[in-house]
Design goal:
It is built from two helices and 13 strands. It is of the alpha+beta class and about 210 residues long. The strands form two sheets. Strands 1, 2, 3, 4, 5, 6, 7, 8, 9, 10 and 13 form an eleven-stranded antiparallel beta sheet that branches. Strands 11-12 form a two-stranded antiparallel sheet.
């Protein structure tokens, strides 16, 4: 966990907090209500969303936006949640797909596998799941987007988290929420940069507390 936090810290220092990134896809829910369900057993948290109708508002490819698509998201925690003065962070592995007939024969607008972290404030109403390559593992594939081999970033935003963000045992507690997302090429977009910087600060707080 220390190595992951250190890597994220170094990435945060290296990334400009700028909105000038090449955003390759952004989306928001096309329906109201909770579409994400997280369950936990006190040690592990699973976050799932199945066939969620979303509106793609931006895509780096020959598809006219906005258009409707389906999101599938699956992620599972891979280590204990760490709680510090700035909030809670927990490592997660997962995968996602965003599909639409408008994206070609395979329908794959964007899909990927990732290793990252979920970050939020205790008793808050939102969480963010983020990953960046480098330093973590983040692989994109697409039938319509070609600029996928550069350093890249991902940020899923979970809003209206209910019940509020908590820790159950050693893991983030169960919740339901809505979802939106941003994916980038070249550099991580502003929301993910801010998140990584927040994770970095949280990581430093953990390290200092342990040394004390």
């Amino acid at each position: 966990m220390k190595k992951l936090l250190l890597a994220l810290f170094l990435a945060a220092l290296a990334l400009p907090i700028s909105a000038s990134a090449d955003v390759i896809l952004t989306f928001g829910q096309a329906i109201n209500g909770d579409t994400i369900t997280a369950t936990d057993d006190g040690t592990t948290t699973d976050i799932e969303g199945l066939n969620i109708p979303v509106t793609v508002t931006q895509i780096l490819g020959p598809v006219v936006t906005p258009f409707l698509a389906l999101l599938n998201l699956s992620a599972v925690s891979t280590g204990p949640a760490q709680v510090g003065p700035l909030g809670v962070i927990e490592p997660f592995d997962g995968d996602f797909t965003i599909t639409s007939p408008l994206c070609g024969v395979g329908f794959n607008c964007l899909s990927g596998v990732f290793t990252g972290a979920t970050f939020g404030f205790l008793n808050g109403a939102s969480l963010t799941m983020a990953s960046a390559q480098p330093p973590g593992s983040l692989i994109f594939t697409s039938d319509v987007i070609t600029e996928l081999n550069l350093p890249r970033g991902m940020a899923f935003s979970f809003a209206n988290v209910n019940p509020p963000v908590s820790v159950d045992g050693t893991t983030i507690g169960a919740f339901t929420s809505s979802v939106s997302g941003t994916f980038s090429a070249a550099v991580v977009p502003e929301p993910a940069s801010v998140l990584l910087f927040g994770i970095a600060l949280l990581g430093l707080a953990f390290v200092r507390r342990r040394k004390a």
